[in-house]
Amino acid sequence: MNTHKHARLTYARRLEMVRQMTEGGLSVADAAELHGVTPPTARKWLGRYLAEGEAALADASSRPAHSPRSIEPAKALLIVELRHRRMLQSSIARSVGVSASTVSRVLARAGLSKLSDLVPAEPVVRYEREAPGELLHIDTKKLGRIVRPSHRVTGNRRDSVDGAGWETLFVAIDDHARLAFTAMHPDEKQAQAVLFLKNAVAYYATMGVTVQRLLTDNGPAFRSREFRQACEGLGIKHRFTRPYRPQTNGKAERFIQSALREWAYGWTYQNSAQRTAALAHWQHHYNCHRPHSGIGGVAPISRLSSSRNNVLTLHTYPARPERNPGANSTRCGSCRTAEQLQGIL
After folding, report:
1. Cα separation of 279 and 269, whole Å?
2. Residue 298 DSSP symbol
3. pTM of the full predicted structure?
4. E-assigned strands of 93-221?
5. What is the pLDDT of residues 149-206, one digit of tens each?
6. Which residues form a coiled coil (predicted)?
7. Residue 86 is part of which domain span?
8. Does 36 lie in the same domain as 174?
9. Could you tell me if 213 and 337 lie in one domain?
10. DSSP H or E segment with residue 31
C-alpha cells in the first residue's frame, strides 16, 4: 500500500475503526471523531467492509475499470507485426485504422520507434594484439586555438574570440600496451600526418617497440599518396577503418576522450602555447603513472618487455630521486628520460 504522508487512515486504522463500529458498538459519528475523519468517510469504509470484507479496506488503484479509448491488445500486436515488416508509421495507422499518435505510442513501448531499431545490435568485439608494435592506432582531433580564456571558462556564450582558428591534436596509441604518443600540429593535412607518423615511429623505437601495422580512419591525409609512401618507407602495413564505424579505431577514440577531459578541458589555459606545453606532461603521466582500466589497472608502460635500456626499467628499478634545479618537486629517472625523449622529437 502506498499511503501519502498526510493520510489519516492506514489499512490498520481502517480495520480498527470498522471493528469498533461492528464489534464494539461505536456509532459512525463517534468512530469518525475518534479517528479524525468525517462521518461520510467512516461510513464509506464501513460499507466496503460489510460488502467485501477486510480486503476492501486496502487502497485500490485509481485506474478506471474500463478505458474506451485504449487500444485492443490484438491491434497492438498487429502494429508491432507490421513494423517488423518495415512499414512506416503512417502506413500502419491507415492499415490498422488507428491514429498515428497511437501507433507511435505502441511502437515506443515496443522499442521500435525507428526503423534502425529493427536491425539487431552487433555484438561488441573486443580484441588486443599480443605484443607491442603489432598494431598502432592513429587519429586526430581538431581543437580551437586559445587567444585568451573565453566562454568555456567564463560560462558566457557571448564571450568568444572570433577568427582564432583551429589546430589539430594527433594521437597514436599502441594496441597492446596502450602506450600513447601525441603532438599538436597546425592542421591535419598530409604533410603534418606524415611528419607525425615519422615522429611516432621514432618515439616508439626509443621504447624498444617496432611498429608493424597501422590503423587509421579514411581521412584525406591518411589516404594521400605521400602518407602511403611514408608507410612503405617505414615498412608499415597500413589499414583503414570501415566507413562510418569509429568503433573500429575505438582505442584511439577512447584515448582522445581521456585527453580532452583530463588535459584539454581539464585546466584553464591562457593561450594555446600553454596548453601545448602541458600536453607532454600529461602524456608522460598517462603512459607512466596513470592506471589504465583496460589493461588491469596498471600503467601502459608496464606492459612493455623489460629491458634495462628503456623507460620501463627505470620505473621498475627507480633511481634515487633527484631534484630539478628549476622545479620544486622531485622526479624519478624515468620522468626525466621521458622528457628527454620528447625533446628529441
Report:
1. 12
2. B
3. 0.61
4. 136-144, 166-174, 180-185, 213-216
5. 777 777 777 777 777 789 999 999 999 999 999 999 999 999 999 999 999 999 999 9
6. none
7. 73-117
8. no
9. yes
10. helix 28-35
